[in-house]
Design goal:
Radius of gyration: 49 Å
Shape: rod-shaped
Structural class: mainly beta
Helix content: under 10%
Number of helices: 1
Number of strands: 58
Oligomer: single chain
Amino acid sequence: AVSGITAANKVYDGKTSATLNTSAASLAGIVSGDSVTVAGGTGVFADKNVGVGKTVSISGLSLGGADAGNYTLGASAASTSADISKATISGVSGITIKDKVYDGTTLATTATAGANFAGLISGDQVTLGTLNAVFADRNAGTGKTVNLTNLVLSGADSGNYTLAGTIAPATGNITVRPLATWTASSGGSWGSAGNWDALPDGSNVLAVSIPSNVSVTYDLPGSTTLQSFGGAGTLSVASGNLSIAGGLTTPQYSQSGGTLNLGGAFNVNGSFSQTAGQISTTGPVVVTQSSGNLNVGAITAPAISLNATSGSIGQSGALVTSGLLATQSSGSTLLNNAGNRIAAFRASSSGVGDIGLTNFGVMDVQGISTASGNITVVDTGGISTSGKVVANGGKVSMTANSPLTIGTDGVTATGDIALVATNLTSSGNMTLNGPLVSSAGAVSMNAASNFVQNSSVTAAAGIAVSAGGTVTLGPSATSVGNPVSYTSSGAAVAAPVGSKTSGGGAPTDFVVTFLAQFEKTVVEPEQVTKVVVADPLNPSESGKAKEKKGLAVEGEICAR
């Protein structure tokens, strides 16, 4: 009998062959001193598969050595055991990723039929059973990295291998979702993914749909870009940046922070509140507050229309438009933010309330009217009026820190009318092309530079005109008030031809003024001032600067 033959352990190679070691073999029945060894032999594992202590069958043994011829081997077969350990798959390639529509998750679906295994023995049946495939992020995009982990081998021969080494990431595409729908039963946070079939953020969704009677608050910290906003629900913005390529029409809108950008018009007809944040549109903004006061924040648009049918209008942020800002209110409209940049302004108040506007830049006033209130306009740039300014039951004050031009429709007020043109930003000229009428107050006009009057001025009280430069009176210029005074560079000049006091006389107490001026002329050197006058009786002299000497009555009538 033969014993002591061993078989070497091996790494799985897909074969049953075993390597024998007969160096330690022993033979029973050998006479002491004889030289007999075991020669030959073949070892075969019971099967090719991995295992520990697997039986190895030995056959084909023979005897060797100097004395082998003296012996016969009773059995040429034997057995032993050895281990077969797993072979290594050092890499997997050929895994592809199926495209998916954005769903708000990073999960990826793989196609593994074409997978290739580095280290797989030809003919073995090994496939991928399960694996985790995850996009690097959840956002829409092409050629996105997909990380592959936790691969599990499958197939008839999979138990003979271990997976090791690096598995190269795959790439896949996430396409933009056409529509994200609000699925929650009530309103709530935009940023809560559980409220949507897929969270619309970034540039992952083209459109959203919000059902009626649902109010959604946009509160994401980042930016979201949409093509459209649909459904009958309402929107509020609290933070972040929401951009919609088209316009937005909604019955209700509120904003306490963040930015809303629209590539079209913005229409709110019902309820609007903006305490903070920014609205920027490429189309007109029309806001109608059906009940109560209307408060607006920072809005930038080609045109802005604000309507408070039963309340007042106020602001907490700057309004910027290269077109018309039009307002209608039943109460006051007070828009005095220093950041306002308004190219044109039209406003009306149908109840008790003032209208006030502070602006920067050149502005066209297309008409302002109050039913019972004051009108105050202050502009860092020039002001021109192309519509009538009417303050029933109130005063009008208009200050331009550049030229001020009153158009042909003029200015009417129950109370005082005060017009000022400073030269803070450019020449402080004032031009009056339309009538000024104060039915119960006074009219004052102060031009830092030149003053031109081409229309009538009527006031129940006095009229005072002051110019730092020349005073030019057109043929249609008249002034009716008491008193009436015109000064140029601090010196009195004549009132327009045909001017009267409110009592019907010339704008001068001639006797009293004559005596005072006569006495002054006797004791002081003669004073000469100049005024540019349009003289309808002597056209050739119109526009010339005429000398006016010290012996002149109040209003400088004698100089004419």
